Amino acid sequence: MSNAIESRLRPAVEFVPAIAAGVAASALWTWPSLFLMLGSLAQLSAGTCIAITIFRAVPGLRVIKYRANLRRWVYTPLS
């Protein structure tokens, strides 16, 4: 992004890939045979997907927190 403020005024779209990675992690952990993987490889892949989930969700939470603070400090003129 060109500006840090502009990147925080947009909707938090980081949750879409975070949810997708979380679903993939749960599917890999629960049904490794569905993906034709050994158990240990599926657990490693699920751990990687969990790391991606956290990596993508944290910036989304920062955007939501920033936008909530903007709503809290809305300027209202006195007259």
Please characterize this protein's 3D structure:
- The chain has 79 residues and is mainly alpha-helical.
- It has one domain (14-72).
- Helices cover 70% and strands 0% of the residues.
- The protein has three helices and no strands.
- It is rod-shaped.
Task: Describe how the helices and strands are arranged.
Layout: H1 4-8, H2 15-30, H3 39-72
Helix pairs in contact: 2-3
Identify the overall geometry: rod-shaped
How is the quaternary structure best described?
A: single chain
Major β-sheet, in short? none
**Overall pLDDT:** 88
Class inferred from helices and paired strands: mainly alpha
Question: How many helices does DSSP assign?
Answer: 3
| Distance from first to last alpha carbon | 38 Å
Strand portion:
under 5%
Rg, nearest Å: 19 Å
Q: H/E order of the elements?
A: HHH
Number of domains: 1
What share of residues is helical?
Answer: 55-70%
Strand tally is 0
